[in-house]
Automatic annotation (TrEMBL):
This is Thioredoxin domain-containing protein. The keyword Signal applies. The lineage of its organism: Bacteria, Pseudomonadati, Pseudomonadota, Alphaproteobacteria, Sphingomonadales. It comes from the Bacteria. It comes from Novosphingobium pokkalii. Pfam families: Thioredoxin_4 (PF13462).
Length: 245
């Protein structure tokens, strides 16, 4: 009888305990932690997506550190930053899934706009190498900006968008550069005539100045917050390292 009584007492206690947990879910087992943002062994340098704002994001979309870079393709500081930082960012920041980089255009001039339209002419998977091509080889093509004739400059700045951007692409040998990326002249011309995209890039540039306080390039945001005084890799690197540790 004592054993039956004890068993009955235990059963009643279990029933009461289960009722308490049902009534108060917070007393149950603690919630599971979220899955790691970057699966082990995955190299996020292979992941590029185009966003609704016509920017491109390289890396883990769920990374805890989201770096935004505003760039202009005719900006020498942007070219210098890319040459210094790209390899280190992709190796220690992007590849392991710790962070992502979003490239946004800050259009400064007709030549910059022309390059921006061409970098949008490829698939997201091809974007990063096309973007790097124009920045790492900037010294090879930028010189014409200073030596162009008055007739060339007039073609760059007057007439419909398509005639202006195509004249720039021809004079700066951009067609040849795009051909090396597998983009035909016909396809490039179609992209260079994209007035809707050109207008969106211009609006994005104005928004960057108004909302993100961008005055020059390169300019950076980390997790949505503008960073002052970080136009170089030497200045940006410690900001990222502090957030990765």
């Amino acid at each position: 009888m004592k054993l039956r009584s004890a068993a009955k007492t235990i059963a009643l206690s279990l029933t009461a305990a289960l009722g308490l947990l049902a009534a108060h879910p917070a007393l149950a087992a603690p919630p599971k932690k979220a899955a790691p943002a970057a699966p082990a062994g995955r190299n996020w340098n292979q992941t590029v997506v185009r966003t609704a704002r016509d920017s491109f994001v390289l890396g883990n979309p769920n990374a805890p550190i989201k770096l935004v870079e505003y760039i202009s393709y005719t900006c020498p500081h942007c070219a210098h930053f890319t040459q210094e930082a790209d390899g280190q960012l992709r190796l220690g920041f992007i590849a392991p899934g710790k962070g992502s980089i979003e490239v946004r255009n800050f259009v400064r001039d007709p030549i910059d706009l022309t390059v921006a339209l061409l970098t949008h002419c490829v698939s997201p998977a091809q974007f990063w190498q096309t973007h790097l091509m124009f920045l790492t080889r900037q010294e090879d093509w930028i010189g014409l900006e200073m030596t162009a004739s008055q007739a060339q400059r007039q073609r760059w700045s007057t007439g419909p968008l398509a005639s202006r951007t195509r004249a720039i692409a021809s004079d700066f040998k951009f067609y040849d550069m795009m051909a090396s990326r597998g983009v035909s002249r016909i396809a490039a011309d179609r992209c260079l005539a994209d007035e809707a995209l050109a207008n969106r890039l211009a609006a994005g540039t104005k928004e960057a100045a108004d909302k993100d306080y961008v005055e020059g390039t390169p300019a950076f945001l980390i997790n949505g917050l503008p960073l002052a005084g970080t136009a170089s890799w030497a200045a940006l690197k410690p900001q990222l390292e502090a957030r990765m540790n």
